[in-house]
Amino acid sequence: MHGNVKVFSGSAHPAFSRRVCAHLGLPLGNSKLVRFSNQNMLVQIEENVREADVFYIQPSCPPVSDGILEMLITIDALKHASAGRITAVVPYFPYSRSDKKDRPRVSITARLMADLIETAGADRVLTLDLHAPQIQGFFRIPVDQLIAAPLICQHLSQGSLADHVLVASDIGEAKDIERYASRLDLPVAIIDKRRYTDNARPVVRQLVGDVADKTALIIDDEIASGGTLIEAATFCLERGARAVRAAAVHGVFSGQALDRIEAAPIDSVLVTDSLPLAEEAVASGEPPRPRPAKVEQLSVAALFARAIEAIHDGTSVFELVH
After folding, report:
1. Strand partners of residue 181
2. Does 63 sit behind a cis peptide bond, omega within 30 degrees of 0 on the bond before it?
3. Mind telling me the catalytic residues?
4. pLDDT (tens digit, 9 = 90+) per residue, 172-220?
């Protein structure tokens, strides 16, 4: 790369930031985060960023609220340090599921996050597979959304997919699964689920498509508690599937998700490294856990590095994911 480019990392996923910098051939920028006894934070940029093209990497993961505030404070610090341009690199966008007003008197929190990032001083945003594409429209600054489907499909194609069928875990995922079906040339099945009350678990009604005597490959944009994935896997096996695999972009794995997936009738789960796995998630202060046997991580660090290069050089980001 050429020019005055600097990459800084928040505390959410420094291992990913280091991988991005390795692909760029750049050192990670020096900054300091201090948490005081009154739970306030101080962020200090420990090197000159005047007129630099700065990229700050911070996905949303536990502790979520602390991570958001750290991101906003750091962007503000960079702005007041006279950075030339600040790009907030947010591999997993905070509150991405709160993208619409689907009940009375609630916040469209994804829009609030967009407003806060802009107000803090970001000039543009780089992210990966937003839960809802309209989130890009919440910003009044440029937003580049990377798509992981090409990389995931390339990885899946390295093995035999002869007996596989792609499964959308709900109707909402049916549109996005086309990205995978067209690249892998596989048939598609869709699970029809209904939620009758706010607090009730969704009820599986039927399966549109056929999984009998096939390996069901469940596709989703993220895996959070694992409940939807496990329910879909069980339903596919009840409908005659020989085995179940899964692939998702974001491995959120909240609560006891990893333990539940390890105990579930699922052969393997592929996710990207947009979020840290258990052994990397040390920001919350919890001791690291061993890497779950069923979960495989596919790195998107090189994809982000190429996007950073394109943004800096003024070339197309769209061509990276299509």
Report:
1. none
2. yes
3. 193
4. 777 789 889 999 999 999 988 766 555 446 666 788 889 999 999 999 9
Do the Cβ atoms of 43 and 71 come closer than 8 Å? no
pTM as predicted: 0.92
Residue 91: other Cβ atoms inside 10 A: 30
User: In the predicted model, is pLDDT for residue 72 greater than 60?
Assistant: yes
What is the location of CATH 3.40.50.2020 in the chain?
Answer: 5-148+302-320, 149-298
Which residues make Cβ contacts (< 8 Å) with residue 59, sequence separation at least 6? Answer: 12, 13, 16, 67, 90, 91, 92, 274, 275
Q: At 56, which amino acid appears?
A: Y
Which tokens sit at 115? Answer: 């407003």
Residue 205, CB-side half-sphere exposure with 13 Å CA sphere? 9
pLDDT of residue 174: 77
Q: What is the pLDDT of residue 200?
A: 46
Helices (H), the chain: 14-24, 64-80, 109-120, 149-156, 178-184, 227-238, 257-263, 301-313
Which residues have C-beta within 8 Å of that of residue 306, sequence separation ≥ 6?
23, 320
Q: CB–CB of 216/189 below 8 Å?
A: yes
Gap between the Cα atoms of 73 and 67, Å rounded: 10
Q: Tokens standing for 61? A: 């993961």
Q: Give the separation between CA 144 and CA 126, rounded to whole angstroms.
A: 5
Q: What is the CATH number of domain 5-148+302-320?
A: 3.40.50.2020
Q: How crowded is the C-beta side of 6, counted as CA atoms within 13 Å?
A: 20
Angle at 83 between CA 82 and CA 84, to 5 degrees: 110
pLDDT in tens, 19-42: 999 999 999 999 999 999 999 999
For the domain bounded by 149-298, which CATH number is listed?
A: 3.40.50.2020
For 4, 116, 144, 314, the CA distances from 141, given in Å and listed in that order, are: 22, 12, 10, 16
Whole-angstrom distance, CA of residue 185 vs CA of residue 178: 10
